[in-house]
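FORM 12-B: Structure-to-Sequence Request
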């Protein structure tokens, strides 16, 4: 076993660049300072009128210019900002020497633009199918198609950074950002690329999204004060708060990173993924897929459950998700899990949806770098059914390994293991 390969003989995957944008700020430094200080980025929505909506708060990113009602445009701006920071930190100039794996929101044109298309098709009467077909063949529709189809976001980011090969766009619900990293890890391990730019991005806070999630009873309705709404693992949790942002990771084979003298920020030691066909939104009540994903990630890293130092929780604050995540962690880590620090940054930034797995990967690596576990806000009423060591104020502890969980609607479960050093 060489210093550049893991115990299974695969190339070690190093992280050499990080970039983050959330409602806490632009850049790693601002985000980490706010996160560890326990400052919330959740606030009242000002982007559009919220009268009549049950939920009127979110962790929106309001400081990056784009049409706030066009989610792909926001998602692209967030991704570009995060990738700029990550690539610069990695010390890469010119074209990026590897592939792009990008998590983006689901593909669809949003309702304001659908309505405009219909009105253009038949401005003086009822819209017929023939009218819509005629409008779909128009130049205006072509322009919208290029703007709204999220795969074109990855195309434009690939052009911007000069990545190699066809960019991969993916959407696996709330685990998408983690899945993008997993694909980059697998490509490097197979020897297909020496580097990968992995991004998760989401700018989906709009009336339609709020209404859809409200109809699922998934969102918190505790609007006042906004910063107290997201309560992961607390007994009085009542749902998640939507958030926005992006994170980018530059992954490289350890051999490639060392050869060019790059600073290694940490390693992606393991990936675990398990699909769950139980329900479109709910998790299997026995927790088997979540348990399998956690166990697979630890096994893939060549670790024993006792070697996990802290857990970066999916921790959405919905009654069911938090219960199922606790069940999964306790099943794999055993009684020791009751004393393993666990924290959810969604209490401060909200749930960034397709970006969440990537944002939390960046925060996991920063936890290792600083030896500090960020807090979980609003954990004033512990849930006796969730016997976990929830961190409520930033805690300084030695951290060599982090388990980062991402569990999405439709049973998309992806877990990643990050480490300060290779496992020997």
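FORM 12-B RESPONSE
SEQUENCE OUT:
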């Amino acid at each position: 076993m060489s210093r550049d390969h893991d115990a299974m003989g695969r190339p070690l995957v190093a992280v050499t660049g990080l970039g983050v944008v959330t409602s806490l700020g632009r850049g790693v430094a601002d985000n980490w300072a706010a996160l560890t200080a326990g400052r919330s980025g959740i606030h009242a929505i000002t982007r559009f009128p919220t009268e009549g909506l049950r939920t009127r708060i979110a962790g929106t990113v309001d400081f990056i210019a784009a049409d706030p009602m066009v989610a792909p445009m926001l998602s692209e701006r967030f991704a570009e900002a995060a990738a700029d920071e990550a690539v610069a930190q990695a010390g890469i100039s010119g074209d990026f020497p590897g592939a792009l794996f990008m998590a983006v929101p689901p593909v669809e044109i949003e309702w304001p633009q659908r309505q405009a298309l219909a009105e253009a098709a038949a401005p003086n009467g009822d819209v017929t199918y023939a009218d819509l077909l005629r409008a779909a063949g128009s130049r205006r529709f072509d322009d919208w198609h290029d703007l709204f189809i999220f795969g074109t976001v990855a195309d434009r980011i690939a052009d911007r950074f000069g990545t190699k090969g066809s960019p991969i766009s993916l959407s696996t619900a709330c685990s998408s950002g983690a899945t993008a990293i997993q694909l980059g890890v697998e490509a490097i391990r197979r020897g297909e690329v020496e580097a990968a730019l992995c991004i998760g991005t989401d700018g989906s806070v709009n009336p339609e999204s709020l209404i859809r999630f409200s109809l699922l009873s998934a969102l918190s309705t505790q609007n006042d004060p906004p910063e107290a709404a997201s309560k992961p693992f607390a007994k009085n949790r009542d749902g998640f708060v939507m958030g926005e942002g992006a994170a980018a990771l530059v992954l490289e084979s350890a051999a490639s990173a060392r050869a060019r003298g790059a600073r290694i920020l940490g390693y992606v030691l393991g990936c675990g993924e398990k699909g769950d066909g139980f329900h479109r939104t709910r998790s299997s009540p026995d927790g088997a897929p979540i348990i399998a994903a956690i166990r697979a990630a630890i096994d893939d890293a060549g670790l024993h459950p006792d070697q996990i130092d802290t857990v970066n929780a999916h921790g959405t604050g919905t009654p069911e998700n938090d219960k199922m995540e606790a069940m999964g962690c306790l099943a794999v880590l055993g009684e020791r899990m009751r004393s393993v620090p666990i924290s959810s940054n969604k209490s401060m930034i909200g749930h960034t949806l397709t970006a969440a797995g990537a944002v939390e990967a960046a925060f996991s690596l920063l936890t290792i770098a600083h030896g500090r576990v960020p807090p979980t806000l609003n954990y004033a009423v512990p849930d006796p059914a969730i016997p976990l060591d929830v961190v409520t104020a930033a805690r300084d502890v030695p951290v060599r390994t982090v388990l980062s969980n991402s569990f999405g609607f439709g049973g998309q479960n992806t877990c990643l293991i990050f480490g300060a050093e290779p496992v020997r």
